[in-house]
Protein 1
Amino acid sequence: MHELTADGRRLALAALVQSLGIGLFTASSIAWFTRHVGLTANQVATGLAVAGAAALAASLLAGVLADRHGARRILAVVYAGRGLCFLAFAFVTNLWEYLVVTLLSVAFDRAGPPVLQALVAAALPEQRDRGRLLAVVNVVRNIGLGLGAMAGGVTLTLDTTRAYRITMLLITAAFLGGALLVRRLPATPRPTAAPAGEGGRARALPGRHYLTLTGLNFLLSFFDVLLLVAMPVWVLQHTSAPRATVSVLYALNTVLVVVAQLPVSRLADGLRRSSRMLLWGGAALAASSLCFAAAGAAHGRSAVLLLVAAILALSLGEVVTTSATWNLSIALAPAEARGRYLSIFGLGLATERVFGPVVVTGLLLGSGAVGWAGAAVVFALTGAVAERVALAGGAQIPALVGEGTP
């Protein structure tokens, strides 16, 4: 944090505040909706899935608005809008109210990341500074999620309507506070359109290299669903490891991401190095998949050690690929259309969050060790292809040619 400017620290603080709210909500929301609103667990899950699919277009709209009105203003609106959704959650009484508020909440959630990236890119012209700030934001977000989840235990212990509503009010305050912090950032000038012939940089929509990289990012983003969905199911149903191993592996991933994100982000310096990191990230995720597969055939301590190795590799793949894609998605986007480009690129992760659980449970886990081996092949090939695509896309931008040569 000491390396950041005052504005960078303010943006990181905004991320910390709103992540505390998300952690609180994640820990207490299921109990609130099922025990006090009267919804079933299936209704809650279905609502989230439907909202996630319907809200994919929200990030695209946010990108257009960020280009038109400025990323700072739109990010403040996104934070404030989501805060008001949490306030509405405190007073929903039936399924339809829950569905409407969930759709709005998820739409704001999907709109946030690309607009945040656009704001960082506009405020910090140096790629190294951008990567460092985005890494700090990711670290404090993980810390905030953990602290918020622990604080949510108080609400769960009290388990009263009043306690849950007070919690929702605190979450609302956290997001409104984040919006105020963002609004206090200095306005950044919106770049004018570049000449049409300048390396194709004035395109309103991404070219084939950027779109291909977006699709490849969808596959590399599966580290998320592997951790949240595949890992617990695999450990509990397909290995001999103790049930408590799941909690230990979650905690290990959190610690590794917090510790490694900032140092790894410093490696993503320039086009060539960032592109090479996609290859490394794919290889790490492939190694993780093979360790998960082997854990299913191991017993006792060997199974636990293989699962730990799988999480170590998965966490490495996570921090490496995210650091690389942060830099590449910004560097390969023209400044005058950066919001739109980043919103389109963000569809890779957003789509993974919607369809990833279905793919993992239906194909990967349903095929056992063979499914994990297939995942390893997909990750390795995706990383290799993504490296070439990123380099080819950068070669069309004169300012990036030769940048970051080791």
Protein 2
Amino acid sequence: MDMEKAVSALNNPIRRQILHWLKDRSNFPPALPEHKDAEGVCVGYIQEKAGLSQSTISAYMNALKQVGFVEAERHGQWTFYYRNEEKIQEFLNAMSDELSIS
């Protein structure tokens, strides 16, 4: 994992908030019936909750995706995002190792 890119992706309070929101699907409205089997949350719901433009949210989600903190899944015209717990834990372990006193 590129620690500099990971830290940069987290150097924005809204991106950190999005990761927090994605921990629990109930932070968002229920999925539409046609998307009930989709993993994650529709980018439109993330945009609505954050109160930011579609282009800003797309850029934020791309930054989180590039470092592996989220995964994206397409369903028709919709993109759904969910946390990549393994990559988040990998980052936390690496950060702990880097900052711990030896």
